[in-house]
Design a protein that fits this description.
Helix content: 25-40%
Number of helices: 9
Radius of gyration: 18 Å
CATH superfamily: Glucose-6-phosphate isomerase like protein, domain 1
Number of domains: 1
CATH architecture: 3-Layer(aba) Sandwich
Protein name: Phosphatase
Shape: globular
CATH topology: Rossmann fold
Structural class: alpha/beta
InterPro entries: Phosphatase_SCO2771
Distance between the termini: 9 Å
Organism: Actinoallomurus vinaceus
Strand content: 15-25%
Length: 268
């Protein structure tokens, strides 16, 4: 990538300025609602993880203060919430270390996103860099389809790869999804002998949860309204979760991507 490498301070300033971290545009009331629904074990909010702990609302809230940097004031019920940019950068550096190991060992990798409108360029850059270092990036179960409930009724969605990044597609569009089902379909195909089992998954939402649940070393991205992956990290099912707003304008993630790839020694 022909972009300048930001220092940690420069990246922190960029994250806050572009609302990737710092005061973010994720509503506090939505965050709290999602924490309650995860505590109630609603599948949509578990991302395919079979969590071992009970995870009460208070425990989830405390976890998100610690791992994501949400406002710790329990009386803050409405308005915007926060993500600590230093926690974002710390997790990026941990992710970079694992990517560097993958490149050194030429591992087999899966990449997938439930937020293609925002995060897709990050995954594309990571996939290209890993392939350039000799990693095998898998693309199984392309075209696998299922029905999804929408306001218009049940619609068909299928797995589509953009280069080597899996996303959910339908009706000529790429779709946001929390569902673990597409990743489960990928892993069923691989477990049936139609490809090597991945050493590493880089993903978000249910794509990450389903991979981590199956014991794959998983690196994830998650917003402050998505506590399941952070709980999975706390239980050892997810290797590293980077807290960030996962749906800002795609080009705003470029400095973050350059920082990640540089610290993983995937680019000079």
């Amino acid at each position: 990538m022909d972009e300048p490498v930001p220092t940690r301070d420069e990246l922190r300033e960029h994250l806050v300025r572009t609302l990737i971290a710092g005061p973010v545009a994720t509503p506090r009331q939505g965050n709290l609602l999602h924490y309650r629904r995860m505590a109630a074990r609603k599948p949509y909010y578990l991302f395919g993880l079979e969590l071992e702990n009970d995870w009460t609302f208070d425990e989830i809230f405390a976890l998100m203060v610690k791992k994501c940097g949400i406002d710790p004031d329990p009386s803050h019920l409405y308005g915007d919430d926060t993500i600590d940019p230093d926690l974002t950068i710390d997790a990026l550096e941990a992710m970079a270390g694992r990517l560097g190991e993958a490149a050194e060992r030429r591992e087999t990798v899966l990449l997938a996103t439930g937020h293609p409108a925002g995060l897709l360029p990050v995954y594309l850059a990571v996939g290209r860099a890993l392939r350039a270092r000799g990693c095998r990036v898998l693309t199984p179960a392309a075209g696998w389809a299922y029905g999804v409930e929408t306001p218009r009724g049940v619609e068909r969605r299928h797995i589509r790869y953009i280069e080597s990044v899996a996303a959910l597609s339908g009706g000529g569009s790429l779709h946001h999804t929390h569902d673990p089902d597409p990743m489960r379909a990928i892993l069923r195909e691989l477990s049936g002998g139609r490809g090597p089992w991945p050493d590493l998954a880089i993903a978000d939402h249910g794509w990450a949860g389903a991979a981590g649940q199956e014991g794959i070393d998983t690196l994830g991205f998650a917003d402050c309204n998505d506590p399941a992956l952070f709980a999975g990290e706390a239980e050892g099912k997810i290797r590293t979760v980077v807290p960030l707003d996962d749906n800002v304008l795609p080009h705003h993630y470029t400095p973050l991507t350059v920082y990640l790839l540089t610290h993983s020694d995937l680019i000079d």
